[in-house]
Design brief:
The structure holds 2 protein chains of 2 kinds. By secondary structure, chain A is of the alpha+beta class. Chain A is built from 5 helices and 5 strands. By secondary structure, chain B is an alpha/beta fold. Chain B is globular and about 90 Å long. Classes of the chains: A alpha+beta, B alpha/beta. The interface of A and B includes residues 104, 109 and 134 of A.
Chain lengths: ~200, ~750
C-alpha cells in the first residue's frame, strides 16, 4: 500500500473530485514510498511548524495575561454598557415632570412582536398627566414577546419611550413579565432628587 | 380634437384625462369624470352631493389651451378637453396649497384623533409639504366644546366648509356658520355659543381633518387599533348600516365611512352615538330568580330549569291557553321566528304578540288583495320618487333616514312633498309643497278619498292626481281598514304608487313578518289557513293550533282575570309600554323575561335572563321598507346569551328537538318556508339590503289600540335610551317633543 498516511476522503465512488485533494488529514509518513531524505525533511518541517505555532499561540495568551480583563464580574460587580444598549424600556418625563408619552400608539403600531398595549385617556386641567391633550392611562409591555428591536423607540415622535440598560428580568412567572406603566416610568424629578 | 367634437353623441362628452379617453354626460364635473376613469384628484372642499365651494384649491389640474390651472371640482367636462392631473406644474401647485393650509395647522398628528385617517395627512404624505418655511409663530385658539358630543379645535380647521354645508344642505339644520375673515375665519354655531342641533355628528364624520371631534371617541384610541364590523343600527326602523369600531370587546365608535348600505354615510344621533347602551354598566350579566319574594342571582341551569318547571306545571294545571308570549321589536328575524315556533309548536298556543308600531299586516293584506305585492317602496326609491305623500308620524324625529330620503328627493330633483299631519312637523314647515294641517289623520284620510275633500286636502288630491310616481308613507295613525282604503285609493291614482309604513324599531317589520301575531303565521297567512299551517307543520312536526290567540291587550286583561298564568317576555317592556301594573304582573305563576336591562317588567319577573345586544349576535333584521340586512356579531359580552341560544335551551328543556345550530340554519328555513322571504343570500352576506315581497291574506286588525307608535324623539329609543349616556347628555335631549332644530 502506498501513502498510507494520506486519508483521502474526497475520492468517493460516483463523485467527481476533479483530482483535487481536500480535507486531507496528514500523519507522519513512515512508509517506504518516499526516499529517506525526503521523509526526514518532511518530519523536521512538521516539528518546527508545530513548535512555531505553539509559540505564536502562547504569545497571545501570555500577552493577554498582563492586559486588563474585559469580562465583567457579574453579579459581584455592576455591568458596564455601551450607550446604545437596548435594555428594558424607560418612559421619560419632560422638564416639568409630566409624562412625555401622549398615547399616539405609534410604538404599538411599529412593534413587530405586538407586545405593547396602550389605553389612552384625555388630560383635564385638574388631572394633567402629559403635556398634550391625551396621555396613556395604561401602558404595558409584554417582555415575554419583546425582541428588543428598538422600533418603538425609533417610532416615538415625542422621545417618550427609550431603551434603558435594565436587563435582569428573568422570571419564573410569565405574568410578571408584563410590565406596567408604573414599572416602566422614569421617577418624577422631585422623587429622583431624594436619596 | 375636432373629430371628437363632431363625432361625439350629443348625450356624451369625450375628453382625455392623463392620456385616458373618458366619456361622460355633459355637465359632469371634471373631478367626477376623473374618478370614473380611476384617477384620484385630491380635494378637501368638494364633496359629492353638496354645493360646490371651490375653497381649498387642492383639485387644481392643468387643461391644455387654458392659461392657468383650473379647479376640477367646478369645471365641467367639454368635448376634446385634454387634462393632466399629475404633472409637475400641478404637483407644485398642490404642494404650495398644502403649505398654505399648514401655516396655522398644528402638526399635532400624534395627539389628534384624526391621525391615521386624515385627508390632510394623506395629501401631505403624497405631495410633501410637511416642513414649513414660515418663521412666524402659528395662530392659536383654545379648543371649544360645541356640545357634549361635538368639540371644535380651531387651529386644525382648514375651512373646507363641509360641516357648514352638510348641516345646511343634507341635514337641513343649518347649525353652523363662518365668522371673521381670511386667516381668522372660524366655524361657529349659528344659534348662540353652543350648538343647537340634532347632534347627528355628520359634521364630525365629514370633517377631513381633526377640527371637529366626537365627544365619545375623543382621545380614546387610534383608527388602526380597532376592529371594524359592518352591522345594522338597532334603534329606529330605518335599518341604517353602521360600522362598529371595537377595541377590547367594547364599542368605541360607530360610523359608516365606507358609504355602504341604504344610508350611505348618514347616521343620526342614535346611530352615531347611541350605541353606548351596549357598554352600559347596568346591563344584566347574570340570570336572576325570584325566591321568597326577592330576586337573587342564579345559574343559567337553575333559571331556565325553574322557568321550564313552572311552565310545565301551568300547562298541566291550566292548559296550554294559560301561557302567553310577548316578543320584541329589536330581536332578529331568526329569533322572532323561533319564538313563535316555541309558542305555536312547543307550548301549543297562539297567545303571542308584540308591540305593533305600524300595521304591516293590513298593508301586506291590502297590497296582496289588490294584486300589487311589488309596491313596497325601498329606501332608495323614496329618494328617487317624484312625489311623496306623508300621512302622520314625524320622520325627522322618529325616522331620520326616511326624513333624509324625503329631503334629498325634494332637494336633488325637486320632488313634491305632500304632508297630512296634526302637528306642524319640520318636513311640513320646510319641504312640503302642500301641507294639510288636520285634527286627525284618520278623518283626514276619509275626507281625502271621499267625495268632497275640503281646503288643503282638495288641493293636495288634485296635485297628487297629476303625479307620475308617488311614494305613500304613513305612520301608525293609519291602520286596519284605513290602510286598505288608502292602498285601494292610491293604487287607483293615475301615476305609479308605492307604499311604506313607518314602524318604530329596528325589527318592527320583521316581528310582524315573522308572525309574532296572535292570528298570523310567518308570512301573513292566518293561523286558520290549513295549507299555510301545513307548510310549517311539515318541518316542525306536530300541529299548530288553528284558533287565533289572544292579542296583547287581551293577554294583559286575562293576566288580571287569572286566565293567563305564565308569560314569557323577550326584549320587551310591557309594564311601561302598555302600563301593566305590578299587581297584575304579580298574579302570574311565571313571568319570564329575557332582556338587556333591569326594566320595569324585569323587576317583576320570577326569572330574568341576560340577553345579548344587537352587537353581540348574528342574524338578520328587516327595516320598515321590508329590506332584509344582516346583523354581524362584533363583540362578546361575558354573562349574556343571545335570544337564539335562550330559545334553543328552552325548547330543549321542554322536550323539543330543534335541529338549528346557528342563526343561519334558521334563516335557511325562513327563506324556504316564509312567503316573500325567498331572498338572495349572497347579496345579504356581503352587507346588502335585500327587499322582500311578502304576500298573504291576514285577518283584519282586531282592535284600534293594538297599533300605536311610541312617539320617540331623536334622543329616545324605547326602554333602551335611558341607559345611554350620549342620548341623555346633550342639552337638546331636554327639548320638548317635536321641537324643530
Amino acid at each position: 500500500m502506498k501513502n498510507i498516511g494520506i486519508r483521502d476522503d474526497t475520492v468517493r465512488p460516483g463523485r467527481s473530485s476533479g483530482g483535487r485533494r481536500r480535507n486531507a488529514v496528514f500523519y507522519f509518513d513512515l512508509s517506504e514510498a518516499l526516499p529517506y531524505t525526503e521523509r526526514m525533511a518532511k518530519m523536521l518541517r512538521e516539528v518546527t511548524g508545530t513548535v512555531g505555532a505553539l509559540a505564536k499561540g502562547f504569545a497571545v495568551t501570555f500577552k493577554t495575561m498582563f492586559r486588563p480583563a474585559v469580562t465583567e464580574n457579574y453579579p459581584a460587580e455592576p455591568v458596564h454598557f455601551e450607550g446604545r444598549y437596548r435594555g428594558l424600556h424607560v418612559l421619560r418625563r419632560d422638564e416639568n415632570g409630566l409624562e412625555k408619552c401622549v398615547a399616539c400608539f405609534l410604538c404599538a403600531a411599529a412593534c413587530p412582536a405586538n407586545c405593547i398595549y396602550i389605553e389612552a385617556a384625555e388630560n383635564t386641567s385638574d388631572h394633567r398627566i402629559s403635556a398634550a391633550e391625551r396621555y396613556a392611562k395604561v401602558y404595558n409591555i409584554d417582555y415575554n414577546r419583546c425582541i428588543f428591536c428598538g422600533y418603538c423607540v425609533e417610532a416615538c415622535p415625542c422621545d417618550a419611550i427609550t431603551h434603558g440598560h435594565g436587563f435582569e428580568i428573568a422570571s419564573y412567572d410569565m405574568n410578571g413579565l408584563v410590565y406596567r406603566k408604573e414599572q416602566l416610568l422614569e421617577k418624577p424629578p422631585a422623587a429622583a432628587a431624594k436619596p | 380634437m375636432p373629430e371628437t367634437m363632431t363625432t361625439a353623441a350629443p348625450s356624451a362628452v369625450t375628453l382625455t384625462i392623463d392620456g385616458k379617453t373618458v366619456t361622460a354626460p355633459p355637465g359632469t364635473l371634471l373631478i367626477e369624470a376623473a374618478k370614473q376613469a380611476g384617477i384620484e384628484v385630491p380635494s378637501f372642499c368638494y364633496y359629492p352631493g353638496m354645493a360646490l365651494q371651490g375653497a381649498c384649491r387642492m383639485c387644481l389640474v392643468s387643461i391644455e389651451k387654458m392659461g392657468k390651472l383650473q379647479t376640477a371640482c367646478t369645471t365641467t367636462v367639454a368635448p376634446g378637453m385634454v387634462v393632466h392631473t399629475e404633472n409637475d406644474e400641478v404637483r407644485n401647485a398642490r404642494k404650495a396649497m398644502l403649505e398654505f393650509l399648514l401655516t396655522n395647522h398644528p402638526l399635532d398628528c400624534p395627539v389628534c384623533d384624526k391621525g391615521g385617517e386624515c385627508e390632510l395627512q394623506d395629501a401631505v404624505f403624497r405631495y410633501g409639504a410637511a416642513e414649513t418655511r414660515f418663521m412666524e409663530s402659528k395662530l392659536h385658539h383654545e379648543e371649544k366644546q360645541f356640545s357634549k358630543l361635538i368639540y371644535y379645535d380651531w387651529p386644525r380647521c382648514i375651512l373646507c366648509y363641509r360641516c357648514v354645508r352638510v348641516c345646511d344642505e343634507i341635514m337641513d339644520v343649518n347649525a353652523y356658520g363662518v365668522a371673521f375673515r381670511a386667516a381668522h375665519s372660524e366655524i361657529i354655531p349659528n344659534r348662540g355659543e353652543k350648538l343647537e342641533c340634532e347632534e347627528c355628528g355628520m359634521c364630525v364624520d365629514i370633517c377631513p381633518v381633526g377640527a371637529l371631534t366626537s365627544g365619545t371617541y375623543r382621545y380614546k384610541t387610534r383608527p388602526w387599533e380597532m376592529n371594524y364590523t359592518g352591522t345594522v343600527c338597532n334603534h329606529c326602523g330605518d335599518g341604517c348600516k353602521t360600522t362598529l369600531s371595537i377595541r377590547n370587546n367594547e364599542i368605541i365608535r360607530a360610523n359608516n365611512r365606507d358609504h355602504s348600505g341604504i344610508n350611505g354615510e348618514f347616521l343620526c344621533v342614535k346611530g352615531r352615538f347611541g350605541w353606548d347602551f351596549v357598554n352600559s354598566q347596568e346591563r344584566l350579566l347574570e340570570p336572576r330568580v325570584r325566591r321568597n319574594g326577592s330576586q337573587a342571582p342564579a345559574s343559567w341551569d337553575d333559571a331556565l330549569g325553574l322557568a321550564v318547571e313552572r311552565l310545565k306545571a301551568v300547562i298541566k294545571e291550566h292548559g296550554r291557553d294559560a301561557v302567553a308570549v310577548i316578543g320584541s321589536n329589536r330581536t332578529s328575524n331568526e329569533e322572532n321566528y323561533l319564538l313563535q315556533r316555541l309558542a305555536r309548536s312547543v307550548l301549543g298556543t297562539n297567545n303571542i304578540d308584540h308591540h305593533r308600531t305600524a300595521d304591516y299586516a293590513s298593508l301586506v293584506g291590502a297590497l296582496t288583495a289588490a294584486g300589487a305585492k311589488d309596491r313596497h317602496a325601498t329606501m332608495a326609491e323614496i329618494a328617487s320618487a317624484n312625489s311623496i305623500l306623508l300621512i302622520g308620524n314625524d320622520p325627522t324625529q322618529q325616522h331620520p333616514l326616511v326624513a333624509l330620503q324625503i329631503r334629498e328627493a325634494v332637494r336633488q330633483h325637486g320632488a313634491h312633498l305632500y304632508v297630512i299631519n296634526r302637528n306642524r312637523i319640520k318636513l311640513a314647515e320646510r319641504q312640503a309643497a302642500v301641507f294639510a294641517e288636520v285634527k286627525n289623520e284618520t278623518e283626514a284620510l276619509a275626507s281625502l278619498i271621499g267625495d268632497s275633500p275640503s281646503g288643503e286636502l282638495a288641493a293636495l288630491r288634485e296635485k297628487l292626481q297629476a303625479e307620475s310616481d308617488t311614494v305613500v308613507i304613513f305612520g301608525s295613525e293609519i291602520q286596519g281598514r284605513d290602510v286598505q282604503r288608502l292602498v285601494r285609493w292610491a293604487l287607483a291614482l293615475p301615476g305609479r304608487t308605492r307604499f311604506v309604513a313607518l314602524g318604530d324599531y329596528a325589527n318592527s317589520r320583521g316581528a310582524a313578518d315573522m308572525g309574532l301575531l296572535p292570528n298570523t303565521l310567518p308570512g301573513y297567512s292566518p293561523v286558520s289557513d290549513v295549507a299555510a299551517s301545513a307548510r310549517f307543520e311539515s318541518v316542525w312536526g306536530g300541529s299548530i293550533p288553528s284558533k287565533p290567540g289572544r292579542n296583547i291587550r287581551e293577554i294583559i286583561v286575562d293576566i288580571d282575570s287569572g286566565a293567563i298564568k305564565a308569560l314569557l317576555v323577550f326584549g320587551s317592556n310591557p309594564a311601561k309600554t302598555f302600563g301593566v301594573s305590578k299587581e297584575t304582573l304579580a298574579k302570574l305563576s311565571l313571568l319570564f323575561v329575557a332582556d338587556l336591562f333591569p326594566t320595569e317588567t324585569a323587576a317583576m319577573a320570577d326569572v330574568v335572563v341576560p340577553a345579548a345586544s344587537f352587537a353581540e349576535k348574528s342574524g338578520t333584521v328587516t327595516n320598515l321598507c321590508g329590506e332584509v340586512q344582516a346583523l354581524r356579531k362584533t363583540m362578546r359580552k361575558a354573562g349574556t346569551r343571545s335570544d337564539f341560544e335562550i330559545l334553543l335551551a328552552l325548547a330543549r328543556l321542554l322536550g323539543a328537538a330543534w335541529p338549528y345550530r346557528t342563526p343561519d340554519d334558521v334563516l335557511r328555513e325562513i327563506v324556504e318556508r316564509v312567503p316573500g322571504y325567498s331572498i338572495a343570500l349572497p347579496h345579504l352576506l356581503v352587507g346588502g339590503a335585500v327587499p322582500t315581497r311578502p304576500e298573504g291574506a291576514p285577518l283584519a286588525l282586531e282592535r284600534a289600540d293594538l297599533v300605536f307608535s311610541s312617539g320617540d324623539s331623536l334622543f329616545t329609543s324605547g326602554s333602551v335610551s335611558r341607559f345611554s349616556w350620549a342620548l341623555n347628555a346633550p342639552e337638546e335631549a331636554r327639548r320638548p317633543r317635536g321641537h324643530i332644530f
